[in-house]
Amino acid sequence: MHIIAHRGFSSRYTEMSAEAYEKALELPIHGVECDVRLSKDGQLMCFHDPTLLRMFDDPRRVASTSSKELSALGVLRLDELLDMVLAYPNRHLYIEAKHPTRFGRMLEEQIVLRLCYRKLVDDPRMHYISFSTAGTRRMAKLAPKMHTVRLLRDWEWCAKGQGISLVRGRANPEKITANTYMFTVNEPEDIRWAQQQGLGMLATDAPDVALSLQTNQ
User: Fold this and answer.
1) Which residues does the UniProt record annotate as the domain GP-PDE (predicted)?
2) I need a surface site. Which of 85, 129, 140, 160 has the fewest CB within 10 A?
């Protein structure tokens, strides 16, 4: 079972901060996950929410804020995270495109552009995930060799090999395969259960806990 640090080592450090990713990458795990949005000036920024309110008590929208202003707050650019990940030869990066967005298809286009610039678009360490059906279809056309995962809401049909929540996984364990990506699994008993089901990819805020349980099997 591949352990993926959800938003970095977010159970101990500020989510998607440089420190959260540094600490996660130091662990002998499969990889890390990030969310990406486009800034006002079209730069890919690692940020989950559409606004800065929850993280910075700032009502501005990410899409209406410049990359310079976001960087000043400590928000990482995707390029910066790529530098960190590439410092570890065997670490994978799961890039979640956040939709809906006023930029539409530009989000996938910019992801491919940045990966192409580094000759990573066909690299097996790079993965694309999204709740957006349109986004995953676009990525399949733009980068047909890239591994993509369509994340499913709990009310959506659970197809094999997709990205599902722990709740949906518990409800439909027969759908879990070695190609399934499950989010966000943090409790020890849930991590053990997921591994027993033959889960392929586990996204967790507590990669250290998942690693210790996997080591102790």
Assistant:
1) 1-217
2) 160
Structure letter (DSSP) for residue 45 = E
Q: Could you please state the CATH topology (level 3) that the domain comprising 2-215 is classified under.
A: TIM Barrel (3.20.20)
Average pLDDT of the residues of the chain: 95
Total count of residues recorded for the chain = 217
pLDDT (tens digit per residue) in 34-61: 999 999 999 999 999 999 999 999 999 9
- Whether the model clears a pTM of 0.90, i.e. scores above it, the answer is yes
First and final C-alpha spacing in the chain: 12
Burial of 178 (0-12, 13-18, 19+ CB in 10 A): exposed
Amino acid 63 reads: A
DSSP 30: S
Closest C-alpha among 128, 130, 68 to residue 98: 130
pLDDT tens readout for residues 131-175: 999 999 999 999 999 999 999 998 887 666 599 999 999 998 998
The answer to whether 51 touches 109, Cβ cutoff 8 Å, is: no
| Contact present, 205 and 10 (Cβ < 8 Å) | yes
The β-bridge partners of 46 are 36
